[in-house]
Amino acid sequence: MRAEPVASRLYAQTVVEEERRLPEAGEVLVSPGDWVRAEDVIARCETPGRLRVIDVAGALGIAVGRVPRCLRVTIGQEVRAGEVVASAGFMGWRTARTPVAGRVAEVAAGRIFIEEPPQRVELRALLPGQVSQVIPQWGAVIRATVSRVVGVWGSGGACGGPLLLRLQRGADTLQWISIDLTCRGKIVVGGLCLDNRVLLRAARFRVSGLVVGGLAEHLRARARELGLVVMVTDGLGAVPMAGPILELLAQHEGREALLTGGRSRPAPEPPALSIPLSSVRGPLHMAPERPLAVGDRVRVTRAPYLGALGWVRAIEEMDGQTRVGVRLDSGEVTAVDYRNLERLS
Amino acid sequence: MADETGGGTYLLIDVGHVLTHVAYIAPVEGVARLVALAEASTTNVLANGGLMEGVRRAIANLHVLVGRQMLEPNGELRRPGDGDGHGVDGVVLTTSLAPTLRVAVVGLTRDLSLASAIRAATLPYVTLVRTICLENSTRRWETEDLQALVGDPPDVVVMAGGVDGGPVAPIRDMGEILSAAYSLLPESARPVVVFAGNARAHRSLIAAFSGITDLRLVANVRPTAQSENLEELRATLTRLFYARGVSQAAELQSLSRWAQAPILSDLDAMARTLRFLARRYSLEKGLLGVDVGGNGSRVLLVRPQGGALAWASPYGCGTAVAALRDLGDPTAVMRWMHHPLSWAEVWDRLSNVEVRPAGVPQTEEDWDLQQASARESLWRTWRGALAAWGQVREDGVCWDADVVVARGSVLNRARTPGRAALMLIDALQLTGLVRLTLDWANLLPGLSGLARTDALAAVQVLDSDGLMDLGTLVAPAGSGRPGTEALRARLFEQGELRAEVSVPAGSIRTLPLGVNEIAQLELYPARGFDLGGGRRGRAGVAEVRGGALGVILDARGRPLQLPTDEEERARALQTWEQEIDAG
Q1: Which residues lie closer than 8 Å to B544 by C-beta, 6 or more apart?
Q2: In which element (H, E) is residue A323 found?
Q3: In this structure, are B79 and B170 located in the same domain?
Q4: Which residues of A touch B40 (CB under 8 A)?
Q5: Do B184 and A51 touch (CB under 8 A)?
Q6: Cα B333 from Cα B111, distance rounded (Å)
Q7: Any CB–CB contact under 8 A between A21 and chain B?
Q8: Which of A198, B101, B431, B441 is 20 to 30 A distant from A114 in Cα terms?
Q9: What is the pLDDT of residue A265?
Q10: Backbone angles phi and psi of B384, in degrees to 5
Q11: How confident is the model at residue B137, as a pLDDT?
Q12: Which of A87, A115, A143 finishes a domain?
């Protein structure tokens, strides 16, 4: 493979266009050019309630044809959770109740279909900046100047909050005891997360999000189960957080940030942490993708140097393959396949 | 002399999960040939320009190789081709990125209508999300099933039941409850309903679903209790896949507009090419196509009679190593490795391959791990396919193919041809006489599309550049005491003895026979081994084709038994690699 453009994983200052999108079509409350704060609601919608099926004939032990005579509700009627919807037997002692509140939508084939109430969803900007584009009925794209770290894995979702560092060095392991009430509503940064209890504590203390260098592979499913927004910056397993990433995050400790956990649909997006740089004004531009060049700061992404940092010393294309000479921070010089490098500059 | 082609130049573009491949086809001395190949990482992130950017980069790489402009300065394709060789006359687009069709199957009898409908819906681009049997005496739905069908509606609901002319009431009831449930959903969320049952029920179903959802009526999958008719349901599901999966994916659509060409599912397109190959070579048993991809693996069995059988699994070598990891059993992958890595190390490395699928192995351990995950993925896919096709074989041995055509970067870029061959032989447990080939340039799906516009060019490219022969495998079933002679072979070329070898049980040997060379092979298996005639120890003569490895004589026996002792197994795996590469 020839040397092709590579996006950096780390930007001290760049412009991002963050798409904020409702789960269902709704109403957009901003216009192009508007400036928004992180906490501003930019769109809202109502998600339709789920349909619940209640098997009345089965619950009452009667034939399907008898169900209409046993109904205690009519189509369109609002019902509360636990309310009797049908009864049969002597004095109506046998009853069928709805487990959820909602509206009776249909009765068919011995079943009642209950439509749960719609949920109101308010979409917040989470990133202070300017609305560059409105997606009619769905949301908006917010343009902002930020420091940005792009992760290798994320648990999905998005959250905002001030950054709180819980590490001195990239290889420090995040201990469960260090997740406490002071972490509430914050995006906690750690080196390695190898302990299930860290995630449990983070969920219990309502940590807004978690950014770690390395995450034990089996904890990914746990993070999703707990609904935590987690981003891994360097790799799965005991991979320390790269020095340049830690330095950047340390510079911005205490500042508000937006953490997006990545998504695969409708278009894939990697997880990223964006820290708005409110004081920056002037000409703004998106950081372009470009091929690796001599002098670039890079990270190796495959064994035996997984996670090691270095500087590009030479790039050589031969027989359609591209090899890169890298001087690692340890002083060692090695040749690495082009596709096993990530730019950190 | 070959017939002259029309002289068109074509780009075959294949967009995969990890890499986008571009092949440039042009006439060379009057015959269509593959002139150059290029690739680039698939850019499926909108911020990186979407899929289009990866395609443009691959074409730009092609330009560097052939020195011909194929893109206009504004990034559009330059067409048609001009006299100087710049531009192209046609484009064929294939992809494995289209989302699969989510299908639920409802049937009245488990062993008849439901079984047939499931067989028909077992297609590589279909994900069966739920199968529901209404076999109980009252034909009542389980609340859980109904809740699942309305809570997370599939793309398609297949209803099947009854023989033609049988009772209509159970089907009418089935339709009425589904139509009542789906009338409550927003129109965009309602699935297409395909009915493949008793034709007498058509009128009542049309009445039930009228104005509610799209109802497709197809031929009964079980017109009688003894007969089965799966083709029309399969064809309808294929059409729905193209209509919903391929056409509605916005990124694929914009790519299709840019190339001014329809997008083909790579597997569907590959099946067409394999069918052509199977007919052309008049194969006795059939042709097995396998694809070990970054996002999953697929197998296709094309037999002389009947339709092609296909199966897809989530196991693979890129993001799909997640499926291997989800097995929760590291030994499943480690049993194929000869480098000692700890469980934790294997798990971490696989996880990092999953999050960075574009990387390439750099150490011997990593190569070993990649080969091990490919073997396990293919092994599980083959087992899944056998189960899905209703062929119960405990040992998983494959007697079904005369030719194996394999594709996937892990095979095309194996360290040696021998290792690519071993991955196929071990995972599929290939037995008998089998010709092993690689779709080394990822051409097979694209050639199917090319055949629609220029059939002659497609055939010429297939003949000259399409497949890379690894060689012919001779692998008898049975077992023998390690070290004792299991197989003796004599290779004759034009009546002259060219080589002779004795293969001890538990070993692999190769006989040299070059690409496109044909020779006579005399085989004398020992008493415990069967070459396919059904009788152990029976000698035979066969005509064999050569390849990069020549003739591979595999006397390890079938089913393949890996030593249980860890050190012994590692030694055996390493020895087999050395033996197959030794030729």
Answers
A1: B433, B435, B472, B474, B491, B513, B518, B519, B520, B521, B551
A2: strand A321-328
A3: no
A4: 1-2, 4
A5: yes
A6: 35
A7: no
A8: B101
A9: 61
A10: -60, -40
A11: 55
A12: A115
B209 is written with which tokens?
């679903």
Among A48, A108, A337, select the one facing B186 at the smallest CB separation.
A48
What are the respective helix, strand and coil percentages of chain B, to the nearest 5?
35, 25, 40
Do B12 and B34 form a contact (C-beta atoms < 8 A)? no
Q: Is B89 on the interface with A (CB under 8 A)?
A: no
Q: What is the pLDDT of residue B76?
A: 85
- Determine the distance from the C-alpha atom of residue B204 to the mean position of all C-alpha atoms in its chain, rounded to a whole number: 40
Residues of chain B with pLDDT under 50: 1-2
Q: What average pLDDT does this structure show over A95-112?
A: 89
**Contact between residue B78 and residue B86 where contact means Cβ atoms under 8 Å apart:** yes
Q: What does the DSSP 8-state code read for residue B466?
A: I
- Predicted pLDDT at A23: 84
Q: What is the pLDDT of residues A24-75, one digit of tens each?
A: 889 999 999 999 988 899 999 988 888 888 888 888 888 888 888 889 999 9
Q: Which of residues 366-385 of B touch A (CB under 8 A)?
A: 366
Buried b / exposed e along B97-124 (16+ C-beta atoms within 10 A): bbbbbbbbbbbbbeebbbbbbbbbbbbb
| Together in a domain, A83 and A23 | no
**pLDDT confidence of residue A1:** 59
- The closest CB to that of A109, out of B173, B348, B349, belongs to B173
**Distance to chain A for B515, nearest Cα, Å:** 23
- For residue B10, the model assigns a pLDDT of 93
Summarize the confidence of residues A253-274 as an average pLDDT. Answer: 84
Pair B126, B88 in one domain:
no
Q: Tell me whether residue B251 is in a domain.
A: no
Average pLDDT over residues A132-145: 91
Q: A58 vs B143: CB contact, 8 Å cut-off? A: yes
Which residues share a beta bridge with A146? A14, A276
Q: Which of A303, A302, A311 is nearest to A330 (CA)?
A: A311
Nearest-by-CA chain A residue for B248: A266
Average pLDDT across chain A, whole number: 89
Q: How confident is the model at residue A18 (pLDDT cuts 50, 70, 90)?
A: confident
pTM of structure:
0.84
B145 touches chain A (CB under 8 A): no
User: What is the model's pLDDT at position B184?
Assistant: 86
Q: Helix B343-355 to helix B364-388 angle, to the nearest 10 degrees?
A: 80
In this complex, the residue of A55, A289, A337 whose CB is nearest that of residue B360 is: A337
Question: B186: distance to nearest CA of chain A, Å?
Answer: 9
Instruction: Please compute, for residue A132, the number of CA atoms within 13 A of its CA located in the half-sphere on the CB side.
Output: 15
Average confidence (pLDDT) over A307-328: 89
Q: Does B328 touch chain A (CB under 8 A)?
A: no
Do A176 and A40 share a domain, yes or no? yes
Contact B171, B205 (CB under 8 A): yes
B347 inside 8 A of chain A by CB: yes
B339 and B294 housed in the same domain = yes
The chain A residue lying nearest B347, using CA atoms, is: A217
Residues A96, A39 within the same domain: no
Residue A267 C-alpha, separation from nearest chain B C-alpha, in angstroms: 6
pLDDT reported for residue A279: 59
- Judged by CB atoms closer than 8 Å, whether chains meet at A4 and B57 is answered as yes
Task: Give the SS3 label for residue B435.
Answer: strand
Overall number of domains in chain A = 3
Mean pLDDT, residues A204-228 taken together: 94
Q: Are residues A200 and A239 in the same domain?
A: yes
Choose among A55, A109, A302: nearest Cβ to B176.
A109
Asked whether the beta carbons of residue A58 and residue B141 sit closer than 8 angstroms, the reply is no
Establish if B255 belongs to a structural domain: no
